[in-house]
Amino acid sequence: MGSRNKSSFNFEDFNNFRKLSDAESKILDEELKRRYTRKASVVIFRHGHRTPFKYKNLTSNPLNELFEKNFFDNLDSRCFKEVNEHLYAKVKLMAFPPGETSDFLVLKDKDNSGKLTSVGAKQLKCLGKRLRTRYTPEVSQVLLSASDDQRPEHSDSCGLLTFSSRTERTIESLRSLLVGLFEKEIREGVDPLVEVMVFASAETNWLLMPFKQYPELKDATTTANSVNFMSKNIPGFSKWSRDFCARFDLSEQYINLQNVRDYVTSFRTFSLKNWSDIEDSMPFEQQDLEYSSRMLSQVVTAEKLIPENGLAKSASQFFESLLDILSNDGQYPLALLSGHDTTINTIRVALRAQDYSWPHFASNIAFEVYQDTLNEEGLKLVVLFDFVPVVLKSISHDVLISLDDFKMFVNSNLTV
Questions:
Q1: Residue 367 and residue 383 share a domain
Q2: What's the CA gap between 386 and 279, in Å, rounded?
Q3: What angle do the packed helices 62-72 and 257-269 form, to 10 degrees?
Q4: How many domains does the chain have?
Q5: What is the pLDDT of residue 350?
Q6: Is 258 in the same domain as 170?
């Protein structure tokens, strides 16, 4: 991309991790089977493939209008046809936290904006199958608790802990995942009821940025996404944006990097009607997705560093809740959290494990707690990105992290 502009942010400070190789992962798996018992696991995942958003606040933006018209006027609605076939039926939506109004409304993805597709539903079903393979003992325990007196009082639900944002796509993604997770039970007609904790409002949703509690985070997001900020602080942005806008014959003031990335992805992954007629008006290049993904990942890192203690404010609610679940003495052997790309990004930045690739649909992060069965040393934590164990160098140089060390890192760096 040519010369890199000088940035006031050292993004490499937040790229301090390493993925294990296949050979290393195999050795770790053998060690875990030989001397450890898994006590609790929490899996956070992004929803599946969706349509792009209609950014109503950008309706005066000619670039946005061009994207929306060419995409939605040519969208083939058959892309949603099979979604309902991949939704787990036996779910009960519960408002969270307890005590919130029970008649809350799920935020519908209206006008096909941000709507889960059949491809997205299948992606999550496949993820559910992979989780069933990895967490077979936990799923067996869940099924056992669904059929005996271990159930919580006044509940017909199994012992699976599930949370979702209050959007149609995240709830449907979780329901699609459950189809893969309980595929065998569905065939046999013994699939358990699953209570899904749905965050009743954005203010209580610790899978999202806490903008209501910390307005300075919202201001920082606006600042970091401005063309002026990105030109000064995001390496390569100025050169790329000049070239991009020249192709679309538009001023750089209309660049919204998140919007660009969203539509570049969509035009590449959807089968649109009349594509030959609109192709000339969509002069994307192969590297646009790679560049916009990397630069946007740097933007979401920077926006957490602009306010004082911004990273801790962004991540503290999530990590507090995560530790509560992991430390719950095996009450919930498996927890599933259905969130967004922003959820995955915030976690990775907080762990100093951001490689500046954008989280793909159905991307996931798992936190697994293990007890050593050969001695009584403390609990260990393994973190996996898309099923690959990672070494979080800012916390430990060992893939098996002391849970006490992890808590100390959270308390020191991610607590307000």
A1: yes
A2: 34
A3: 20
A4: 2
A5: 98
A6: no
